[in-house]
Amino acid sequence: MIDLAVAEGLDRKELVDAAGLGGIDLTAGDARVPIATQVALWQLIAKRLPSSNFGLRAGTSFKVREAGLLGYVVAHSATLETALERLVRYSWVLNDAVKCEMVKNQHSLAVTQSYPEHGVGLQDAVDYRLAALVSVCRQITGAEIVPVEVAFVYHRARSAVANSTRRRDPRGIPA
Q1: Is the pTM of this model over 0.90?
Q2: CB of 62 within 8 A of CB of 132?
Q3: Is 19 domain-assigned?
Q4: Domain extent at residue 140
Q5: What is the pLDDT of residues 34-65, one digit of tens each?
Q6: Looking at the domain assignment, is residue 62 inside a domain?
Q7: Residue 123 within a domain
Q8: DSSP per residue, 82-99
Q9: 19 C-beta neighbours (distance < 10 Å), count
Q10: Which end of the chain is more exposed for a tag (fewer CB within 10 A), N or C?
């Protein structure tokens, strides 16, 4: 993600220093980055790149192999449903501040993600996780999977504002 922010014109050293990432090996797929550090990084990016849809663009470039052991387990699942079940079950490994759930019925499957404690001001992080999820589904199936419906709830300091408008995939595919 830092490489993408740098490609957008942000300064790598400033991002690393301001977010407190010094001393963390970001090239290791299984590296643990503290939640407070992740929040600081997302807030800094949002401040420097307002209204840029950075989270959506960054999420589409996410590679399942970047998720370490969890990425391996997801990528080598027999079905997409099994992959999503594993992702939901073990998502805390990537970020223990995000609550993931899967709801299935006869005709559909829904994955929900919520940020009970750290969601304030992290619209780009929410967008990133959604775009990364769609990207991973496409990578492991080899198909241009398009979500039937996407809904966002962005938390703000005094209220939650639901964004029920349809969003477009950065590649132009309707979501």
Answers
A1: no
A2: yes
A3: no
A4: 53-163
A5: 888 888 888 889 888 877 889 999 999 999 98
A6: yes
A7: yes
A8: HHHHHHHHHGGGT-TT-E
A9: 22
A10: C
Place of tokens 């740098």: 6
pLDDT for 148 equals: 86
Tell me phi and psi for residue 74, to 5 degrees.
-65, -45
Interval 17-35 mean pLDDT: 76
Q: How far is CA 160 from CA 119, 120, 137, 154, in A?
A: 10, 9, 28, 6
Number of folded domains that form the chain? 1
Interhelix angle for 68-75 vs 80-90, to 10°? Answer: 160
Helix (H) or strand (E) holding 59: helix 54-60
Does 120 have pLDDT greater than 80? no
User: What average pLDDT score do residues 105-122 get?
Assistant: 75
Q: What is the pLDDT of residue 164?
A: 40
- Please give the distance of CA 15 from its chain centroid, rounded to a whole number: 18
What three-state secondary structure class fits 32?
coil
User: How much is the average pLDDT of 91-120?
Assistant: 80
Higher pLDDT among residues 11 and 174, named by residue: 11
Question: Do the Cβ atoms of 147 and 134 come closer than 8 Å?
Answer: yes
| Any domain includes 58 | yes
Identify the bridge partners of residue 152 per DSSP, sorted by sequence position: 163
Percent of the chain with pLDDT over 70: 81
Calpha distance 40→72 (Å, rounded): 28
